[in-house]
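Q: Give me the 3D complex with methylmalonyl-coenzyme A.
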Amino acid sequence: MTHNNLFAALRAAFPADLTATAVETDEGLRYSWQDLDRATAMMANLLQWLDLPQGSRVAVQVEKSVEALMLYLATLRAGHVFLPLNTAYQSAEIEYFIGNAEPAVVVCSGAHFGWVSKIAFKAGTQHVFTLNDDRTGSLLERAAHHSDQHQTVARQADDLAAILYTSGTTGRSKGAMLTHGNMLSNAITLKDYWGWKKGDVLIHALPIFHVHGLFVAIHGALINGSKMIWMAKFDPKRVIARMKDATVFMGVPTLYVRMLAEPSLDKAAVKNMRLFIAGSAPLLIETFTEWQERTGHTILERYGMSETAMLTSNPYAADKRYANQTERRGGTVGFPLPGVRLRVRGDDGQDMPVGEIGGIQVQGPNVFKGYWRMPEKTAEEFTADGYFKTGDVGKVDERGYVTIVGRSKDLIISGGYNVYPAEIEGYINEMKAVAESAVVGVTHPDFGEVGVAVVIAKPGAVVQPENVLAELKAKLANFKIPKRCFVVAELPRNTMGKVQKNLLREHYKALFSA
Ligand code: MCA
Ligand code: AMP
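A: Here is the predicted complex, encoded as C-alpha cells.
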C-alpha cells in the first residue's frame, strides 16, 4: 500500500499524457511528466541503494533548479525525510541544523562542498552529494546509474515527510516535523478551495526551501496535474511578461510591491490570469487596493505557518457549501480552511467574544507532529486539549473573517523571511565592545518590515555601527542582517528592567518611510 505516501498522491495526479510539459524553465528548458517520473525514480533508487535507516533525513542546501525539485520528490518517494535549508545560511547556521537533525545524506552545491562536507562528516553524515543549478553534480552522476523504475515506498499518514527549521523566540531553531498526512490533507483542501482547474498553469517564482514555495506552490500544481513556469529567481519584469502563459501566481507581499513598481503591469498583462495568492507576511491594504485598481484582480490572502502549512484563506469564489464566504477582504486572512479549527483565546485561556483580540490557536489534520527532539518545547506550544498556539494575535469578526493584528512572539517578517531578534541580539552581545543590544522590526516599503539594531557599548569601549553589521554579515544569512544599527547610551526599560521594544519601534518607525 503506497497511498499514504504524499508522492503517490502527487504521482497519481500526473496527466494521462506523460509527454506533456510538467515544468518549463524561464530559460526555455522543458521537462515532461515522464521526465519527472523517471528522474525521481533514479534518485529514489540511489537513496534506497544507500541502504539508509528508515526515516533518515536528507538535508539539502542547493540553488533552485528543477533537479532540486526532483530531489524533494525522490526523497518522499524513497520514504525518507526532506530537510530543506535556505541558501543564505552560513556555516554556523548549517552546523547547527546538521548537528541537530543528524541527516544521513547532505546535498549541497559544488561550490560549497568543502565547508559543508566538513560540517556534515564531523556530524556523522555518511553521504554528501553535490547538485548545481546547471544539471551537474555528483547526485545526478550517481543517480544516472540507477533504474528509472521505482516502486514508491509505503508510508503511513503519520510518518514524517519533512522537517522545516523555524527560528525560536529564545535560543536556537526548532525543527517542525511535518507528516505525509499533514501535507497531503492541506494540498487536497487547497486544490478544492482555490478552485484549481484543468489547464491551470502556475508561475513558480519563490524559493523552494520554505512552506510557501516548496509545499503550497509545488503541491498545488502537481496535485492538479498542472504545468509550472519555473523561475530560479523572482524578477518582476519576467513574471509579468510570462503572465500571458499562466493562470495562477503565488507570492509574498514584497513580490506584489515590486510588480506594482513595473509600468508593464496592467490589465492586458494579466488577461490570462485566474488567481493571485499572497501570504507569509501581512499584505498591506494599500497593496491590495492598488493591485485591484491596476489589474482588476483581487489578491486572495491566506495565512499559514511552517508548523501547520495553510490555516486560513479568503474565498476563491462564492460557494454554497460555505455560507458567508463570498468575497476576498483586504486586511483579513479569510476563513479557517475546511477541516481547520481555529479559536481566539485570552490570556486567561477563555474564548474571546466575536471581534475581540487574543491568541490564535489551531487544530486540524495539517497541524504538525511536534518539534524534532524537543518534547518539552512541543508540549509548551500545545494546549491541554490539543490546540497549537500559533503565537499570532488576531480576531474573528461576526462573519467569520480572521484578521491578524500582531504577534505575541518576538518576530520580524522581512520580505517573507522570519528573523528572530533574539538570535541576532545573541550574536551582537557576543561582540567584544558591546554591552547589550535590542533588535526591533520597523516598517519598510519593500520588505514590509526590516530589523534595526540598537546597541550599547561597554564602559570605555567604542562601537562602530558599520562594524556591528559587518561582523553579523560574516556569520549570518544576509536577510537576517539589520538594515541599520544605532549606538545609544541606554535602552528604554520598564520597572521590571525589561527593554521596552515598543518604544524603540515607535522611535524608529519612520526610518525607511518614502
Ligand atoms: C534579500 N534581502 C533581504 C531579503 N531578501 N533583506 C531582508 N529581507 C529579505 N527577505 C537583502 C539581501 O540581504 C541583500 O542585501 C539584498 O537584499 C539583495 O539580495 P537578493 O538575494 O538579490 O534579494 P532579492 O533576490 O531581491 O530577494 C528578495 C525576495 C526574497 C525576492 C523578496 O527575499 C524572497 O524570495 N522572499 C520570499 C521568502 C519566502 O518564500 N517566504 C516564505 C516562507 P545585501 O546586498 O546587503 O547583502 S513560508 C511562510 O512564511 C509561511 C508558512 C507562509 O505562510 O507561507
Ligand atoms: P513561518 O512559520 O516561519 O513560515 O512563518 C509563519 C508566520 O508568518 C505566521 O505565524 C504569521 O506570523 C506569518 N504569516 C503568514 N501568513 C501571513 C499573513 N497572510 N498575514 C500575516 N502574517 C502571516
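A quick observation: Residues 166, 210-211, 279-282, 301, 303-306, 333, 390, 392, 404, 407, 413, 418 surround adenosine monophosphate (ligand 2) (CB under 6 Å).
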